[in-house]
Amino acid sequence: MMEALFFLAIGVLALYYGADFLIKGAGKIALKFGLSPLFIGLTIVALGTSLPELFVSLIAAYNGKASLSLGNVVGSNIANIGLVLGLGAIIAKKGLKVKDQLFRFEMPLLLFYSILFSIFCMYGKLNIFHGFIMILFLLFFLIMSYKNSPKELLNSEEMKEIKKNTGNTIILVAQIIIGGFALDYGADFTVKGAVIIAKAFNLSDAVIGASIVAVGTSLPELFTTIIALMKGQDDIGIGNALGSNIFNIFGVMGVVSIVTPVVVEKSLLYLQIPAMLLITAVLMPLMYTGTDKEGNRQPKISRIEGLLLFIFYIVFMIILYMKTF
Fold first, then answer.
1. Which of these, 194, 163, 172, lies nearest to 23 by C-alpha position?
2. pTM value?
3. 3-state class of 125 per DSSP?
4. In terms of C-beta density within 10 A (0-12 exposed, 13-18 middle, 19 or more buried), how is residue 287 classed?
């Protein structure tokens, strides 16, 4: 057991610092091209924080533990909303302000993608056909997010100041490469630790993936969102969590499904996937209820609503383990 805890601790640390290196490098390079903070949060940062899920899932699939990869992705999506956005809204003094673009496009798209992904899972196996469809839908998301990104932000004084201090491009590329290697080794250690614990406590791969590994690989999203909120960058924080969820189900599982067929365990269909759909569906009406100082509608997640999301996540984890033991 000590060996497993050692692997998990080293793995999570490597995942976090690897993602941190990659996010900073990729974010600064993106800023050099004048991309908006919202687009960066939805794509560059979201992709960076989804890389742990990708590495963990690919390594798990390679080791014949494809159900672990699926449980990891579904659990990470639940954690990104319940844990990351929930805690983020609780920490933020006035809740999380949501841009209209996120509420009108990315959020409905995430819900639609989650429903479509769930339908694919109902067939009992994700194959190469499902994988290619998911990758095509992911490309659609990237293209539309860029087209819908608020171009007026590109000429702001803040963006100009940031671009002046982004650093040398070669150093930033090296930073990204180092971050990628750290993510690779971190993912390997995390999977090893999770498999050892699964055998010791007789837990299924899906349960381990949806809980321990999912939380471990969601730490980059959690820290990135909290740090972004502390700096007043709500766009990056919320965009990171929502964009990461899209990358997880259609990017990560799209790639894994192309590499190898993924058998869907029944426990995922009965608990984890419905929980992911429910918390994703609930998020939209929670955002809609927000108002600004003048009483006008302003999509946001209040502290109370953040607490509800966090409680949902805690209840989900309790039920997950109660069904196991």
1. 172
2. 0.80
3. strand
4. buried
State the Cα–Cα distance between residues 47 and 21, nearest whole angstrom. Answer: 13
pLDDT digits (tens, 9 = 90+) for 204-236: 766 776 677 777 767 777 777 777 777 666 777
pLDDT at residue 275 is higher than 80 = yes
The pLDDT value given to residue 134: 95
Q: How far is CA 80 from CA 126, 163, 210, in A?
A: 23, 29, 12
What type of residue is 125?
K
Rounded distance between C-alpha atoms, residue 26 and residue 176, angstroms:
7
For 305, the domain range is 2-322
Nearest to 47 by CA among 257, 235, 246: 246
Number of domains in the chain: 1
Q: What share of residues in the chain are helix, strand, coil (percent, to 5)?
A: 80, 5, 15
The three-class DSSP label of residue 292 is: coil
Q: Domain of 176: which CATH number? A: 1.20.1420.30
Query: What would the two tokens of residue 157 be?
Result: 């004084």
Closest CA to 248 of 74, 26, 85: 74
How far from 317 is each of 102, 183, 215, 220, 275, CA to CA, in Å? 28, 25, 11, 20, 10
**229, 87 in Cβ contact below 8 A?**
no
